[in-house]
Amino acid sequence: xxxxxxxxxxxxxxxxxxxxxxxxxxxxxxxxxxxxxxxxxxxxxxxxxxxxxxxxxxxxxxxxxxxxxxxxxxxxxxxxxxxxxxxxxxxxxxxxxxxxxxxxxxxxxxxxxxxxxxxxxxxxxxxxxxxxxxxxxxxxxxxxxxxxxxxxxxxxxxxxxxxxxxxxxxxxxxxxxxxxxxxxxxxxxxxxxxxxxxxxxxxxxxxxxxxxxxxxxxxxxxxxxxxxxxxxxxxxxxxxxxxxxxxxxxxxxxxxxxxxxxxxxxxxxxxxxxxxxxxxxxxxxxxxxxxxxxxxxxxxxxxxxxxxxxxxxxxxxxxxxxxxxxxxxxxxxxxxxxxxxxxx
Length: 344
Ligand SMILES: [Zn+2]
Fold this sequence. Notes:
The protein is of the alpha/beta class.
């Protein structure tokens, strides 16, 4: 008999679901722009999309037309005569992303956060503040200690950090560190240069240590809208190292959510995928995250290892906040019970 996903094997598997986000995820969430109409840029339309950037480059007589922003930025980075210009560019970029806001109604980012639990983690390459804002506004729905862990692999414009402590303290940008009461500083952003140093900033370094540790333990790994661009060779190598030999991870499940066609995206992640143990989706709402919200790992493990059939119980895409709260209720009840008494 098929069972309701939230009940049977609720959180019986302790291994995490790790989700990796790239710019394609933010674009999928807001194809027409965020709350105030600001568009999510990709590297090939970056200069035209980020307000103020094309004007500034034009004023500096830098020819950007037809250039991918990664290549353009890298060439400025490698020539010290452009240092001042580069700093202005970085400020324009930071300010653009920092002012982005989630629309008032529930969004894909809210659905992503509400579909995972404290066991899981979301690592993002994106500078935009959507993930942080989604965590903040959904915290009370599921409980502060029942949220996925967030990791910022290229820094982030929403968060402030205090690096005075062994465990880096993260919170709202500009707020006070709860440990030492000093003001948190802005997270640095890692810009698209050819050879990135992930150890140069303590916050980014600790995010990478955490993502590697999650990858080692993960039962499911979803790559959402991250195209592994050429300037991220080191990133993909680091991830691949942490994932290890794909033949030794033959039970694990990989999900790819992307607009890019299946063959191309599978080739890009070939180092990770063991034979047919992957799912490919064009759309977040057909992925396991969304179809088996809050139980993706349990359901997947149950199906593959124990042959348990499962019922789809997708997060309601068009639900209002109140309807989402109603939908969450049975999950949270089971989770609270599991946390108090264990799985038996
Ligand atoms: Zn502190």
